[in-house]
Amino acid sequence: MTYAISERMLSMQPSAIREILKMTADPSLISFAAGNPAQEAFPVDEVAQITQDIMNESPIAALQYSLSEGYPLLREELKRFLQDRYSIGSENDDLIVVSGAQQVMDFACKVLCNEGDTIITEAPTFVGALNTFRSYQVNIVGVDMDEDGINIEKLEHALRTQKNVRMIYLIPTFQNPTGRTMSLAKRQACYELAKKYNVPILEDNPYGETRFSGEALPDIKSLDDQGLVIYAGTFSKILSPGLRVGFVMAPHEIISKMVVAKQCNDVHTSILSQMICHRFMTEYDFYAHLDRLKVVYGKKSGIMLEQLDRLLAGKLLYTRPEGGLFVWGELPEGVDMLKFVSTLIEHKLAVVPGNAFMINSADKTQAFRMNFSTPSDEQLVRGVEIMAEVVAKVF
Amino acid sequence: MTYAISERMLSMQPSAIREILKMTADPSLISFAAGNPAQEAFPVDEVAQITQDIMNESPIAALQYSLSEGYPLLREELKRFLQDRYSIGSENDDLIVVSGAQQVMDFACKVLCNEGDTIITEAPTFVGALNTFRSYQVNIVGVDMDEDGINIEKLEHALRTQKNVRMIYLIPTFQNPTGRTMSLAKRQACYELAKKYNVPILEDNPYGETRFSGEALPDIKSLDDQGLVIYAGTFSKILSPGLRVGFVMAPHEIISKMVVAKQCNDVHTSILSQMICHRFMTEYDFYAHLDRLKVVYGKKSGIMLEQLDRLLAGKLLYTRPEGGLFVWGELPEGVDMLKFVSTLIEHKLAVVPGNAFMINSADKTQAFRMNFSTPSDEQLVRGVEIMAEVVAKVF
Asked: Which end of chain A is least crowded, N or C, by CB within 10 Å?
């Protein structure tokens, strides 16, 4: 039979990155295309001990239905953590646990946007968020970025001229894909614009804890005394992405609607996963683990950047992130980026072409994304060598 | 600030059952209002061993990102299981893992329905599915049920007269809330109507494995040689609801769109949860466990029904389910059902008023739902006693 697919899903395609990742099943190919946290950052022994303890001490609670809002002890611990470490959270806010930060993108859109409403994003931005927004048939308006984050004049222009703007989606810290971090002045300016135009900010902060150099900046949510910021966090980069545990802090009114969305979508997040996160935060030295992460990511990014400096300085531009998982490369004008990327693949190196992160993937860009957390140290060294070999041939 | 909540979520409320369940935090109250599987049915020792084995043998795989389609070994095992045990699945079908069967309701709606399209359901039906459908602003048309399932004439009338019918949502086996099972003749008739009107059936089968008496009937999906049936299954009632693992088998074209919906919603289901399910199916005697379930549920339903027969026969009507978790009671005309339910609560017994399961909760019904899987044996006995005491006072 023929199926009547809904309008919202008719033109939706699997993410371009997935298609590239399929090729990376080839073991001879080095992949800078993924976005996986470094596996050496996983606290394997601790999680093994924790799961054993949970199954000994409270197996029924770990297996039975639980609350849509999340495991109460984890919610409390996360509120305390965000307040203590980042001065995030007020009387006006509540926090629920969701199945990874991706689900926050979904629920924020579901709760705040009608079809045809506008969401403003950085351009380029996280393809997973873009796809979620597309699936709600909203109008996505991308705003260019400078080195220190979104261009404030262009953001205000968009807020002033676009109709029915319901949300400003930002990744202020170690933005995906660019690796850039928004300056404090721009964080304040974004917040002031949100206030002026009465448009909530969705602040996505998956990478904040991976900072391996430079000074941490306040999250926009920590400036929020008016209930304007929806803050999305996740255990994916600090404990494990496979457990699928994220969280969202937002004003009560928005959270109460997100709880209904949660009930309608998956009832609640795996309670075993939530109990693991809670015990890891409270029974182990969580802050020491976060410090260990910085060492892992600092080392891996260092290997990639050193090798880029040695072999490709002056040949292409690339960012020097202070955290996160990505380096953003940019080819000189005149070089065909898509052809460059496919030549890399022929030489057994995968990167993600920048257009995957554009609001309109047909827009022209010279950029591409390199991930340093997933490859082994040897693969980082060899991968940049391959790139240098291809650059020598192509440019 | 004031938030512009989307039209779809503006009128959505937390489920009425949740509100009742909040009262059941009172330890002196006996709850027949839940829908939790019996905790004595959880294979605690096996899951404890399995989690230890996983964390010893493949900790990185259990913690790293995984595929949106689900854990490949679990998908294969589920396909084999459904084919071997129920003759479900053809070349035309594929199967993916999701975060509980609730997510199938969401994705089916997301993929197949535009705003204003029609979904036909049994009336009454599962409130969780109704709320998901409502959140997509579809037109829900309820069709009355007979003792042996949905009324076929009324179903055809709805198919003939309603516009843009995109889905027929059915729980053929141990329907929630009524506990009724659709006859084979009606299963065939539903399938023929789906074919005639070219409308897919969403067959929700959370309770099939709990059958403790009578003969199993073929699932509608097992009749499906035309790619007309989307089949939703779950580990919630056979292993654990807290792990949040369900699955959907459907034609490739629908599954490929559901995979995109999955990517946009929560990327993938907890891989640790999926690995637990896979090992439980393959390393233990899964069929023996399913037999054990039948004993547990048969015993608990027997206690409730015996006590109802002893104290309330002739005073109210109630179903005699052959599986599932629920008995559906019906009060004589002239008794105020909502008042009866609140009087029960005053006497420390919670049941769910039938209108919670109606398409329009303002519709009049004399029915209410009783759950026998969650209360202890003593609570089952005492709960029905309380009901008899209230009936003696009220009628």
From this structure: C
Classify burial at A289, counting beta carbons within 10 Å of its beta carbon; exposed 0-12, middle 13-18, buried 19 or more: middle
Question: Is there a contact between A54 and A62 (Cβ–Cβ < 8 Å)?
Answer: yes
B87 and B33 within one domain: no
Is B242–A18 a contact, with Cβ atoms under 8 angstroms apart?
no
Contacts of A131 in chain B (CB under 8 A): 260, 263-264
Task: Give the pTM.
Answer: 0.96
Does residue A255 share a domain with residue A326? no
Distance from CA of A144 to the nearest CA of B (A): 24
Mean pLDDT of chain A: 95
The number of beta carbons lying within 10 Å of the beta carbon of residue A375 is 24
Alpha-carbon gap, residue A132 to A8, rounded angstroms: 11
Are both A270 and A296 inside the same structural domain?
no
Interface test with B, best of A39, A244, A274 (most B CBs within 10 A): A244
Contact B207, B325 (CB under 8 A): yes
Per residue in A94-128, pLDDT (tens digit) is 999 999 999 999 999 999 999 999 999 999 999 99
User: Exposed, middle or buried: residue B385 (CB in 10 Å: 0-12, 13-18, 19+)?
Assistant: middle
Same-domain status, A271 and A138: yes
Chain A residues lying within 8 Å of B64, measured CB to CB: 36-37, 39, 42, 240-242
Residues B34 and B126 in one domain: no
B63-101 pLDDT, tens digit per residue, is 999 999 999 999 999 999 999 999 999 999 999 999 999
Is A59 an interface residue toward B (CB < 8 Å)?
yes
The tally of domains found in chain A comes to 2
Q: Give yes or no for a cis peptide into A124 (omega within 30° of 0).
A: yes
Q: Do B244 and A259 touch (CB under 8 A)?
A: no
- Packing angle, helices B252-265 and B102-112, rounded to 10: 110
Average pLDDT of span A321-334: 95
Instruction: Tell me the chain B residues in contact with residue A240 when contact means C-beta distances shorter than 8 Å.
Output: 63-64
With both helix axes pointing from N to C terminus, report the angle between A252-265 and A102-112 in degrees, rounded to the nearest 10. 110
What is the full DSSP assignment across A11-44?
T----HHHHHHHHTTSTTSEE----PPPGGGS-H
Q: Residue B175 is part of a domain; what is its CATH number?
A: 3.40.640.10
Query: Which amino acid is present at B208?
Result: G
Tell whether A170 and A292 lie within a shared domain.
no
**A5 in any annotated domain:** no
CA distance B389 to chain A (A): 31
Q: Match 């969403």 to its residue by tokens.
A: B202
**ipTM score for this prediction:** 0.96
CA distance B300 to A175: 55
Q: Which residues of A touch B36 (CB under 8 A)?
A: 64-65
Sheet of A352-353, strand order: A317-318, A326-330, A367-371, A352-353
Of all helices (H) and strands (E), which one includes residue A295? helix A286-312
Q: Tell if the CB–CB gap between A266 and B266 is shorter than 8 Å.
A: yes
Q: Which residues of A touch B98 (CB under 8 A)?
A: 266
Residue B59, both tokens: 């900790």
Question: Cβ separation of A273 and B273 shorter than 8 Å?
Answer: yes
